[in-house]
């Protein structure tokens, strides 16, 4: 498989890291010697528990037929919806208040689907199984990280699998909502009679401030940031990646180019220990597992998670 990668370079060991008593790795090997998956694998094997933060994006779910939002070719925002409006309208707060039916129709369709996680979802879960995962910030609303077994996660844009009143924020279960969606009912809050929506962040709604605070707090303990299947083109990825401590390695794994690295201080060079690895995302995750020598443990993990035989195959 042909991968492209950013230019290699020798990493610089910074004095501030060597004097950090919390840091888990001694000596020059603490940073990547060159921006390769081999170096990333070596680094992961030596890292202390709960030090990896993963930002996962829509491209880890697109192999299942789930569209991401903004890709020009297949992005959900660029598609017409039922001949009446565009999908970008469906996910707009003001539009929803005037006409909730299209979002209900979309939600109903999503809830009828049965998706299995990809290897990339299981990879995040496997990192948690290895007690390495500090937190998974997922930009996806499909719950597939959760289905893969990840418990240490934050759904940045919420989920289609829970419901909330747009005014008083009373929550409703998916079972409660699904019955009403099936009957094509407009769902009104039993507490304040306002509209109920799937618990996703609509365009025109503010991000909760605590997501930024949570991310900043996690960055204090993070020793490796993995961006998996995200082009970093949407908020809050843009904001939260600006100004973070860049002394630890950051790995960008995707099948498409990032939106604009420079805007996120993701320089992909030796000075910042950034690695960009472009290619099939599942295959890259499998390769990392293989390089870390964890194939046997992955197979045991796969049995526990009822993964399909091919999903845990690391011969790529
Ligand atoms: Zn309410």
UniProtKB/TrEMBL annotation:
Keyword Zinc attached: yes
Residues the record lists as binding Zn(2+): 165, 168, 189, 192
Top-rank taxon, per record: Eukaryota
GO MF annotations, alphabetized: histone deacetylase activity, NAD-dependent; metal ion binding; NAD+ binding
Deacetylase sirtuin-type domain span: 30-295
Keywords associated with the record: Metal-binding, NAD, Transferase, Zinc
PROSITE patterns assigned: SIRTUIN
SUPFAM superfamilies named in the record: DHS-like NAD/FAD-binding domain
Pfam families referenced in this protein's UniProt entry, alphabetically: SIR2 (PF02146)
Any one of the GO CC terms: nucleus
PANTHER family to which the protein is assigned, alphabetical: NAD-DEPENDENT PROTEIN DEACYLASE SIRTUIN-5, MITOCHONDRIAL-RELATED (PTHR11085:SF10)
Record-given protein name: Deacetylase sirtuin-type domain-containing protein
The organism of origin for this protein: Nezara viridula
Lineage: Eukaryota, Metazoa, Ecdysozoa, Arthropoda, Hexapoda
């Amino acid at each position: 498989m042909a991968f492209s990668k950013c230019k290699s370079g020798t990493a610089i060991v910074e004095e501030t890291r060597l004097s950090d008593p919390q840091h888990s790795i001694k000596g020059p090997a603490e940073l990547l010697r060159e921006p390769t998956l081999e170096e990333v694998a070596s680094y992961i094997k030596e890292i202390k528990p709960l030090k990896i933060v993963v930002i996962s994006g829509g491209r880890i779910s697109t192999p299942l037929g789930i569209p991401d939002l903004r890709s020009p070719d297949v992005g959900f925002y660029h598609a017409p919806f039922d001949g009446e409006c565009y999908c970008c309208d469906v996910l707009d707060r003001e539009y929803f208040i005037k006409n909730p039916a299209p979002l209900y129709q979309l939600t109903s369709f999503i809830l009828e689907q049965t998706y299995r996680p990809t290897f990339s979802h299981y990879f995040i879960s496997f990192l948690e199984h290895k007690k390495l995962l500090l937190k998974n910030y997922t930009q996806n609303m499909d719950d597939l990280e959760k289905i893969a077994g990840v418990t240490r996660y934050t759904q940045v844009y919420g989920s289609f699998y829970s419901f909330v009143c747009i005014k008083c924020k009373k929550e409703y279960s998916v079972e409660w909502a699904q019955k009403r969606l099936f009957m094509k009912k407009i769902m009104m809050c039993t507490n304040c009679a306002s509209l109920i929506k799937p618990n996703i962040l609509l365009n025109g709604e503010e991000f909760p401030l605590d997501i930024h605070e949570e991310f900043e707090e996690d960055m204090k303990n993070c020793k490796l940031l993995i961006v998996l299947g995200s082009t970093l083109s949407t908020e809050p990825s843009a904001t939260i990646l600006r100004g973070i401590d860049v002394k630890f390695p950051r790995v960008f794994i995707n099948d498409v180019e990032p939106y604009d690295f420079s805007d996120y201080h993701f320089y992909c060079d030796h000075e910042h220990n950034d690695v960009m690895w472009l290619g099939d995302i599942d295959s890259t995750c499998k390769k990392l597992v293989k390089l870390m020598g964890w194939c046997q443990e992955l197979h045991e993990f796969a049995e526990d998670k009822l993964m399909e035989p091919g999903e845990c195959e690391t011969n790529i």
